[in-house]
Specification:
6-stranded mixed sheet, alpha+beta, membrane, serine protease, about 350 residues, about 30% helix, 6-stranded antiparallel sheet, 9 helices, hydrolase, PDZ_sf, 18 strands, Pdz3 Domain, Ribosomal_Su5_D2-typ_SF
């Protein structure tokens, strides 16, 4: 009898826990992810591949909170709870959010390639491929006709190569006028008519209700292949640029060390801050990383680097945490690094 009662109680508890796991709360939970080597996913044609160590990107895992994960995050250090508005734009769907993250990765990837190839004195050229829809505003004319991820190729039969040209053209229109937009979605071309109207909270501003960025393709020699389709966001920029440069140039910048890091990078090679630096330090430490590059933000007291150092002290890491403001600083550090003893 007692065993049956225990079995029933266990079954009831399991059902309750299962139900709770499907309840979505208005929060996201982030936690330490992992360090992933870049060499397997970045391949420069006929590139140098004699790395004795490795370059790795670091990740943060995140997901929508339910009652169970919310409580777990409350009692675990380096698990953070974020309101929805800190992660997603207002009225942004999960699909739109992921599309925006993947596009940010594409932009970061392009900057990383550009910096590495130019520093290695290799060919870099650009061709333009429309304008990327980066956001759609609810209750504006384009909301029911365009989606995040669409690529616009023509407006009223006019071809524009940059988002700025598109915006300048539309800005000359008046409320109530229509434009015909030719776009591509998931490999298929289509066109729609969109009427310009005033923005809900800015009655003096007229537009379609979309945010845009220029979509361009880079042409480089030697060719490069990156398998980063499932990596979102811009934070791997610095580490990708180092891996690409290492494959483009003779010698091994890793010197036998396991090297990870984080930070955005722009076309000028400037390293920018990211979110979740503490969680990335924890992830890198668990993976046995030797050296970690962290954005220095020109020595700001609240920099990623200073936060990384504090986290390193908390967890007692043996990693060397190195501050960087530019790609060149990271290369200089690596060039001066002594070979790791076998």
């Amino acid at each position: 009898m007692k065993s049956r009662t225990i079995l029933r109680s266990g079954l009831v508890l399991a059902i309750v826990l299962l139900i709770m796991s499907f309840i979505k709360l208005p929060f996201y939970i982030t936690q330490p992810g992992m360090a992933s080597e870049l060499e397997p996913i970045i391949k420069v044609e006929n590139g140098f591949d004699d790395e004795k160590g490795s370059f790795s990107l670091t990740t943060v895992r995140f997901g929508r909170a339910n009652p169970l994960t919310y409580v777990w995050a409350k009692v675990n250090e380096f698990y953070y709870i974020h309101p929805l508005e800190d992660i997603k734009r207002e009225d942004e769907s999960d699909k739109d959010y992921m599309n925006r993250q993947l596009h940010m990765m594409e932009v970061s990837q392009e900057a990383a390639i550009s910096v590495a190839y130019e520093k290695a004195n290799k060919k870099v050229e650009y061709s333009f491929h429309g304008i990327y829809v980066d956001g759609v505003i609810k209750n504006m004319p384009a909301a029911s006709k365009l989606e995040v991820g669409d690529r616009i190729f023509k407006v009223d039969s006019l071809e524009f190569q940059t988002a700025e040209e598109f915006i300048e053209y539309v800005a000359k229109k008046k409320e109530g006028e229509e434009v015909i937009i030719t776009f591509e979605r998931e490999g298929k071309r289509d066109e729609v008519k969109v009427t310009l109207s005033a923005f809900p909270n800015q009655p003096d501003k007229i537009g379609l209700g979309i945010s845009l960025v220029t979509d361009r393709q880079m042409d480089v020699e030697p060719e490069i292949e990156l398998q980063t389709e499932e990596i979102g966001g811009p934070s791997a920029g610095l580490m990708m640029s180092l891996e690409i440069y290492n494959q483009l140039t003779e010698g091994d910048l890793t010197k036998g060390y396991q090297i990870a890091g984080t930070g955005t990078i722009n076309a000028e090679g400037i390293v920018g801050p990211i979110g979740g630096i503490s969680q990335k330090i924890v992830a890198a430490d668990k993976e046995g990383i030797d050296i970690f590059f962290a954005p220095n933000e020109n020595g700001d007291q609240a920099s990623n680097y200073n936060e990384a150092v504090e986290t390193g002290k908390k967890i007692g890491t043996d990693m060397e945490i190195i501050p960087v403001d530019t790609f060149d600083e990271a290369i200089e550090y690596l060039n001066n690094l002594e070979q790791k003893n076998a």
